[in-house]
Amino acid sequence: LFVETALGGGVAVPVDGNGAHYLISVMRVREGDTVLLFDGQSGEWAATAEQVRKRDLVLRCVQQTKPAETVPDFWLCAAPIKKGRIDLVAEKACELGVAKLVPVLTERSVVDKVNLDRLHAHLVEAAEQCGRTALPELAPMIPLARLLADWPAERTLFFADELGGAPMRDAFTAAPGPAALLIGPEGGFTTAERDLIRAAPQARAISLGPRILRAETAAIAATACWMAANGD
Ligand code: SAM
């Protein structure tokens, strides 16, 4: 179970709301039972249930069961797409091991707002499901030009360009180290945006093949390919 409290030996973690409902009514947790917790930074902890009431309980951390996880240094920067599809991207990015998810506002973005709370909930659910204990960082939405202006010098920016680029497998193996993938919106990038991205010194245009993939397919497939080449 994901909790906001920073975990450590002897720490008491109060749980209410949905978390308590899940533990008490669904999992039938009773006093003395063990529950596995993670806070996104401190690995996984076994905690003992105390003070189990109808709608809340307290969990006391007893022992660390997994060390803090190191995740591959890979960011997914993606233009927001329609609700169910961006939710899918967040879920799969978390499962695949992405360190940071960055929604990027582009000229052709049909969707110009992201619900960070909803995306965070999807990341938490995916982390719980796949046994990941380090939660991906979720950045607020940033306009493309600002993203590029502030781009860190040491991080390769793999730009998925449906108009052509290096085969992604070759590009990923040729540039190990901190990396990010940039995926466009439903309508793709404009010519001006494409020129701006290609002008960034860290940008490497990549092709995902001859077919135009849905934005979510491109994000998930290229992330999986980078992880296969460079992830743990
Ligand atoms: N209209 C479809 C949709 O609604 O999802 C296709 C969108 S495609 C233009 C969205 C983004 O996916 C592109 O901007 C690009 O980043 C990436 N993409 C899709 N196919 C690609 C390919 N074959 N090679 C490289 N990038 C690709």
Automatic annotation (TrEMBL):
Keyword rRNA processing recorded: yes
Assigned EC number: 2.1.1.193
All copies of domain Ribosomal RNA small subunit methyltransferase E methyltransferase, residue ranges: 73-226
SUPFAM superfamilies named among the record's database cross-references: alpha/beta knot, PUA domain-like
Gene3D superfamilies on file: 3.40.1280.10, Hypothetical PUA domain-like, domain 1
Keyword tags: Cytoplasm, Methyltransferase, rRNA processing, S-adenosyl-L-methionine, Transferase
Example of a GO biological process term: rRNA base methylation
GO CC terms: cytoplasm
Record localization: Cytoplasm
InterPro entries for the chain: Alpha/beta_knot_MTases, PUA-like_sf, RsmE, RsmE_MTase_dom, RsmE_PUA-like, tRNA_m1G_MTases_N
Main location (coarse class): cytoplasm
EC top class named in words: transferase
Family stated for the protein in its record: Belongs to the RNA methyltransferase RsmE family.
Function, as annotated: Specifically methylates the N3 position of the uracil ring of uridine 1498 (m3U1498) in 16S rRNA. Acts on the fully assembled 30S ribosomal subunit.
Family annotation (NCBIfam families): PRK11713.3-5, RsmE family RNA methyltransferase
Name this polypeptide is given: Ribosomal RNA small subunit methyltransferase E
Organism whose genome encodes this protein: Sphingobium nicotianae
UniProt lineage: Bacteria, Pseudomonadati, Pseudomonadota, Alphaproteobacteria, Sphingomonadales
